[in-house]
TrEMBL record:
Keywords: Carnitine biosynthesis, Dioxygenase, Iron, Metal-binding, Oxidoreductase. It comes from the Eukaryota. InterPro entries: AlphaKG_dependent_hydroxylases, GBBH-like_N, GBBH-like_N_sf, TauD-like_sf, TauD/TfdA-like. Converts trimethyllysine (TML) into hydroxytrimethyllysine (HTML). Residues 102-263 form the TauD/TfdA-like domain. Its cofactor is Fe(2+); L-ascorbate. Pathway: Amine and polyamine biosynthesis; carnitine biosynthesis. SUPFAM superfamilies: Clavaminate synthase-like. Residues 3-67 form the Gamma-butyrobetaine hydroxylase-like N-terminal domain. The keyword Metal-binding applies. This is trimethyllysine dioxygenase. It comes from Elysia marginata. Belongs to the gamma-BBH/TMLD family.
Length: 297
C-alpha cells in the first residue's frame, strides 16, 4: 500500500487537527502546503501502528488497521453484497421480512432490516400497528424522516385531492418517486393502514438488475444514461389540499459510484430518458406483493 504524505497529514487524528467528540476536523486545509514533508517514521504498538514526525514539528499517530479500513481503494468492498433479483428469484424464496418486535427492540433485527435494504433494495417489517404514529416509529428506528412537498409522514387514498396519480384508482407501473427533487429520498416507506375492495397490489422490481441487463445488451446507450442530463418536474395547481408547487430538477437517469462502479441511483418515469422496451423489461422482471395491513415496506 502506497499512501501519499499529504493524505496522511490531512487525516491526522491528533487533538490539534481532529475533534474526537464531534467527529469533525479542526484543521484548516491551508496547512497542507507544498513544503510539508515527513522527517521520519517509527513503528509502534508491536508494529500495529506508526508515528510520523513532520518537518514543521507536528506528530501524527496511526493504527495499521485504521489505515487499511479508511484509505481509498480502487474498488471499495461492500459489507453486504448486493443481490440482483427478478420475479423468479423472489417467488422461489421467502420475502425479506423482519418481525416488528425484532426491528424495534433488537439490534440484530435492525441490522437485518438494513442488510435487506443493502442486499435486495427493499425490506418488509411485519406486525406494525395500523397507525401513522406506529409507522413513524418504525421509520425513525432506521433513520430520520425527510421533508417533502407532501410533508414528512402523510396518509393518502384515491380521493384525487393532490395532482398525483397515486391519489387516483389508476394502476401505477414501475417508476421511481421524487425524481423531480435535487436529492430524491434514498429510502421510501409504505404502509397500508386500511384496504377495502380489490386491487392495490404493490409492484416491486430491481431497477439495478434491469440496468445491468441494459448495460450488457447496449453498452453505448447505457453510457449515455450516465452522462446526458434529463429534466424532471412536478406541477400542482393551488387547491384546498396544497398551496401549489412546481418542482424542477436536472440529473442523469443513472448515477454510478465513482470508485466502485456500482449503481447508486436510477431515476425512472415513463417517457423520461429511457426507451419503451426498458419499461417492458421492468414489467417482465417485477413481482407483485399482496400486502396485508400490518406489512411495512
Amino acid at each position: 500500500m502506497v499512501v501519499p504524505a499529504v493524505w496522511l497529514r490531512d487525516h491526522c487524528m491528533s487533538p490539534e487537527y481532529y475533534n474526537h467528540e464531534t467527529q469533525q476536523k479542526n484543521a484548516d486545509p491551508n496547512h497542507l502546503t507544498r513544503n510539508l514533508k515527513i522527517d521520519s517514521v517509527e513503528l509502534t504498538d508491536n508494529d500495529c501502528g506508526f508515528t510520523i514526525f513532520w518537518n514543521d514539528g507536528h506528530v501524527s499517530k496511526f493504527a495499521m488497521d485504521w489505515l487499511q479500513g479508511n484509505y481509498y481503494k480502487e474498488k471499495p468492498d461492500s459489507a453486504t453484497k448486493r443481490v440482483y433479483w427478478d420475479k423468479n428469484l423472489m417467488e422461489s424464496q421467502p420475502l425479506p421480512i423482519v418481525p416488528h418486535e425484532d426491528h424495534m427492540k433488537l439490534e440484530a433485527g435492525l441490522a437485518e432490516t438494513v442488510s435487506n435494504l443493502c442486499k435486495y433494495g427493499f425490506s418488509i417489517v411485519e406486525g406494525c400497528k395500523e397507525t401513522e404514529e406506529a409507522t413513524e416509529k418504525v421509520v425513525e428506528r432506521l433513520s430520520f424522516v425527510q421533508e417533502t412537498l407532501f410533508g414528512k409522514m402523510w396518509t393518502f387514498t384515491s380521493d384525487g385531492l393532490r395532482s398525483d396519480t397515486a391519489y387516483s384508482t389508476q394502476a401505477l407501473g414501475s417508476h421511481t418517486d421524487l425524481s423531480y427533487m435535487e436529492t430524491p429520498a434514498g429510502i421510501q416507506v409504505f404502509h397500508c393502514l386500511k384496504h377495502t375492495g380489490s386491487g392495490g397490489e404493490t409492484l416491486l422490481v430491481d431497477g439495478f438488475h434491469a440496468l445491468d441487463v441494459f448495460r450488457e445488451a447496449y453498452p453505448e446507450d447505457f453510457e449515455l444514461l450516465t452522462k446526458i442530463v434529463v429534466p424532471h418536474e412536478y406541477k400542482e395547481e393551488p387547491s384546498d389540499a396544497s398551496p401549489g408547487y412546481h418542482l424542477y430538477s436536472l440529473g442523469t437517469t443513472v448515477r454510478i459510484h465513482p470508485a466502485s462502479g456500482e449503481f447508486i441511483q436510477l431515476r425512472y418515469v415513463v417517457g423520461y430518458g429511457l426507451p419503451d422496451w426498458f419499461g417492458r423489461l421492468l414489467i417482465h422482471m417485477s413481482c407483485k406483493v399482496y400486502f396485508m395491513k400490518n406489512y411495512i415496506i
